[in-house]
Amino acid sequence: MEEKKSSGMFAVFAALGANVLVAISKFIGFGLSGSAAMLNESIHSVVDCGNQILLLFGDRRSRQASTNLHQFGEARAKYFFSMIVATFLFFGGGVIGVMEAYDKLVHPAHSVENAGIVIGILLIGMAIEGSSLRVAFKEISELNTEKLPIFKFLHESRHSEILVIFAEDLCAIIGLLLALLGTVLTMVTGNPIFDAISGLLIGFLLMAAAIFLTREFYSLIVGERVTDSDLEKILTAFDRPEVERVINVKTVHLGPTEILIAAKIDLVSKLVLEDYEIINQIEAEIRKKISDKKCYIYIEIDEFVQGYVQSSDL
Asked: Where does the Cation efflux protein transmembrane domain lie (predicted)?
């Protein structure tokens, strides 16, 4: 359990349990009311359940040991399955929801029955989703060791699963509020168009969230360097008298907690220690400074040539 908490996966289990309960209640509500917004919310919860199962499968794949084919392991599998989750959220939750709501919008003859029961189910759903969102906030607090503003942390974090869960839970709360508003307005005015509009807005909300997640996961799949704080820690490990100049440092995240570091350095002409001893000490210092990550480090000794184009990382 502690391993799951530290990796952000506990929030996935919490979200899965919450969405199973919410999906059942929403389908009961849709069956009793015929509400377009409730149908969209039901579809949304089913998609979310499937998404959490995909995230759990991706986490399992990411733990596979290295092989001759995948010599750095499969840690980036989390990013691949997170991208699939974003795709399902767009088409399974957003597009289908918009289509259903649009059909109700152009054919406003449908009615919302048992509105009181629907409102009760929506309020229960908000309480359940709220508890799941609180777990996500707790996970973020544990992972956000530098105490960054939450949206900056989510943008810079390499933990794709926590970004998915936070986005899904936040959209679920907003979606339930929209469904509640549409139901209340329909009940007060007797006009079902408000129910259809709320369903339409929920669909657009899910599509927007999916587009945002897709952009983030594309960047992670292609390969992002370490965060600014981790890069600074890496560079300080080279700050020693034996190192004349750091010529180049390049990094890439192989997964949320696995990084590849490649560096080229110029050593001073007269050394007390052997080259390999200096390299070993630098590698040990890097691993000590970023002990929360598994590091693959490759350092090359070279002579600096004036005019050499250095990495933008520096």
From this structure: 12-220
Q: What are residue 263's DSSP bridge partners?
A: 249, 299
Contact 118, 112 (CB under 8 A): yes
Q: How many residues in the chain?
A: 314
Residues 229-270: pLDDT tens digits? 899 999 999 999 999 999 999 999 999 999 999 999 999 887
Phi, psi dihedral angles at 38 (to 5 degrees): -65, -35
CA distances from 289 to 4, 226, 230 (A): 23, 13, 8
CA-CA distance, 169 to 26, in Å (whole number)?
Answer: 16
Q: Are 224 and 160 in contact (CB under 8 A)?
A: no
Tell me the three-class secondary structure of 212-277, residue by residue: HHHHHHHHHHHCCCCCHHHHHHHHHCCCCCCEEEEEEEEEEEEECCEEEEEEEEEECCCCCCCHHH
| 286-306 average pLDDT score | 90
Tell me which residue has tokens 């965060």: 227
Q: Which tokens is 313 given? A: 């990382």
Rounded-to-integer distance, Cα 309 and Cα 302, Å: 14
Q: Using CB atoms within 10 A of its CB, is residue 174 exposed (0-12), middle (13-18) or buried (19+)?
A: middle
pTM: 0.78
Does residue 143 or residue 41 have the better pLDDT?
Answer: 143
Query: Across all residues in the chain, what is the average pLDDT?
Result: 85
Of 38-52, 97-111, 147-161, least confident by mean pLDDT is 97-111
**In the predicted model, is pLDDT for residue 188 greater than 70?**
yes
Q: Return the amino acid letter for 241.
A: P
- Which residues are bridge partners to 266 per DSSP? 245
What are the chain's domains?
2-222 (1.20.1510.10), 228-301 (3.30.70.1350)
